[in-house]
Amino acid sequence: MQRSRLTGGKIRPGLIVPVSETRMGVMKRLLLFLICFGVCFGSILPARAGAEEPIRKGETLDLQRCIAIALSRHPVIQAAAGTIRAGDSRIGQARSSYYPQLYGSTGYSRTNPTSATTSAGQVYDSYSSSVSLSQNLYDFGKTSTQVKIQELNRDSSRSDLDNIRTQVSFGVKQAYFGLLQAGRNRDVSREVVGQFQQHLDQAGAFFEVGTKPKFDVTKAEVDLSNAKLNLIKAENAVRLARVALNNAMGLPEAPDYEVADQLSSQRVEIDLDETIRKAYDRRPDLKAITVKKQSLEQSIELARKGYYPSVTGNAGYGWGGGSFPLDQGWSFGAQLDVPLFSGFSTKYQVAEAQANLEVLAANEALLRQTIDQDVKQAWLNLQEAADRGVAAELIVRQAAENLELANGRYASGVGSPIEVTDALVVASNAKMSQISALYDYKLAQSSLEKAAGEP
Asked: What's the whole-model pTM score?
């Protein structure tokens, strides 16, 4: 050891400093550094993890991207996936009857009997331990039927998941096209505001030189105010449509993003009868109800097996006694259980399963009617929207020509402000009607895909 004294960072003679204490100080400082580093690093990690968002701020999303986000994050899909996992677990529970059942038990009791055959105050201890094994040997197919029922239920849940995915996809399409429609309507409203502002400037210039009365200026101001009011409503409609799309994707707190304008129609001829046939083959809800019917048919068979006996093998080994070492013993054997009378319980279980199957068969027939109606309705809406889009395109051109004539007549001094206002309103309504026809066409197309069970 070295004699030293620590004062002011210098070593002076007079104090013995053990080597273990210096090491302890170094270890404390190292531990403090690691704690600080861990806190800082831990505070960085959540920030980086939180930055891993499915949508980056300012990103432009197309329809397929929005659908992909919804299919991966929407809560209703996650819930349906959880139902499938629960179905897998129920299959495992049903299969457990194939395997041996092993049980262990142990016990202790201390007794002070009051029987007349036992001396008063004669307290004694009792110890027991045992291991027992039972094995289902034959149950006339009850276990296998139960496993098959749970497998069919799991398959039905998978079809339900496919149906939910279809519903979510359709909801995203509806909200996506709704946002595009609201955006285009807002653009039209902005254009109308600009046109009314131009008309106001023109009327004000004519009034200043004395060629137009004050009425023209006042009416132009009123028309401009109404156009601005409509613009406010159109901008709010865009915000509401964005909220609807965020919720359809399962991201209510999504950052600001842009959407690709896919609101265009290209008419495609679709065979109605072929689409209905495909719908019967591909609709996931119809597949789900078909699998449920098979499950109920197996449930009837399972209920009928309640009339049959079952054979179980068992074995056991145990220890017991009032003091150590304990006595030992073992046993093995088989047991035959024959249901002689259960109060007609099995009969009513079979009747209940048959009634449930009849109900499901009726629901299947109703669903087929609904599928036929959905396909036909979506097909007719698609044809109507396509025809309306062609007519709206012609009206837009005619309204633009009418507006140009009205502006020309007013500029030359022979027109009235009412003509200009009417022409502007007609032109804006024509554009919005065209936008509405495009939206209805896309929505009808999406509805037809959904009704036909398109993947």
From this structure: 0.79
